Amino acid sequence: MTDVVTEDTDLAWPDREGTVNQPRRAIVAVALVVAAALLGWLAVWMWGKGVDPIGMVRGRPDLVVDRFHGQWVAGAVAVAVVALILVLDAVRQLVLAVRSRSR
User: Fold this and answer.
1) Beta strands in 58-97 (DSSP E)
2) Are 36 and 90 in contact (CB under 8 A)?
């Protein structure tokens, strides 16, 4: 590792070792997208388990009363949030896979 020293100051900045472009990160990004898709499916399934239609309002056939089960709805929201975090991480991994720096 060589140090780069400027004339104005005594601070030494280390040179970067290795490359920024790491194509194997694309495989990680694909795996994260697959995991996020499975979690998205799980969130939709959990949401369906958490909502029960009870009936219609008399005189208003366009209104339907639903009953929400809190543990299923909260679980669906939590799983969806984890899926979104995985998608964001997949985007980051993909950017690191294709990014190159000119010197």
Assistant:
1) 60-68
2) yes
Q: Residues 39-67: pLDDT tens digits? A: 999 999 999 999 888 888 788 878 888 88
Nearest alpha carbon to residue 97 among 16, 24, 35, 19 = 24
Position 45 in a domain: yes
Domain assignment present for 103: no
Q: What is the pLDDT of residues 78-92, one digit of tens each?
A: 999 999 999 999 999
Residues of the domain holding 59: 20-98
Structural domain includes residue 47: yes
What average pLDDT is seen over the chain? 84
For 1-103, strand residue ranges (E) read 3-5, 12-14, 51-57, 60-68
CA dihedral (38, 69, 67, 47) in degrees, to 10, reads -10
